[in-house]
Amino acid sequence: MFLKQLTHVRLDRQRLAALPSEVLSRLPAASHVFLQHNRLASVAPLAALPGLKFLVLAHNRLAQVGRRRVAACLGRSLYV
Fold it and tell me: pTM of the predicted model, to two decimals?
């Protein structure tokens, strides 16, 4: 299936308020995810992406999320 092979996922400027983990679990190869300019308040669903290495979250509704906090939510180190 094509989705299982995607490594770069661009979901910026989509007015997303949430990220359903059941959708994210279909993207196991996603290593670079671009989510800037959305309405996200939580990064927890991104833990469903085991290969995530690069994440862009600028201009969302996250309250003071630092690099360590994002890494802790996802359970691994990450470039944010």
Answer: 0.79
